[in-house]
Structures are given as structure tokens and as C-alpha cells.
Amino acid sequence: MTAQLPAGNAGGEGEDGDAVRKSIESQLAEQVAMKARLENEALSALKISPAKTKKSEVLTKHIGEAAKKDPSVMVHVIRSWLTESDR
After folding, report:
1. Angstrom distance (rounded) from CA 16 to CA 82
2. What does the pLDDT read at residue 75?
3. Does the pTM of the predicted model rise above 0.70?
4. CB neighbours of 20 closer than 8 A, spacing ≥ 6?
5. What residue numbers bound the domain in which 21 lies?
6. Does the residue 4 lie in any domain?
């Protein structure tokens, strides 16, 4: 036994067709928005902020300022750190 849809405008024209089309489009838009919101919430839940102490923040700021003032000095510091780690 097969079910048949009632006869109507094949092009979906007319007031009923427009209303149905608009309803479907709004439902799809809501689903897309909900999916995007859920994805953003999931990504936010995965982001873990790095644990920074006040001391590390100050050191990072100091090194950044020193690198802007005299990059060659910072190159020397970094090279010395690298050679220390190789030992």
C-alpha cells in the first residue's frame, strides 16, 4: 500500500507553498545556528588556559622589551640557553 500526497502546485507557488517554504527555511536556519552555537560551546570547553604565574608574566614582558631594545643581546641569551640545554 502506497501513500500519496494530495495534489497541489508542483512549483510550490501560492500562499500555502510560500508559507511552507518559509517555515522550512526558518527551521533550517535555526538548526544551522544551533549547530554553530553547540560547536562553539564544545570548542570553548576544550580550551584550557595556560597556567601563568605572576613571575612568568613579568619575565615574558621583560624579555620582550629587551628584545625590542637590543635584539643582538637576546640572540646571545637564547644561544647560551640552547648550549646549556645541550650539555
Report:
1. 74
2. 86
3. no
4. 12
5. 13-48
6. no
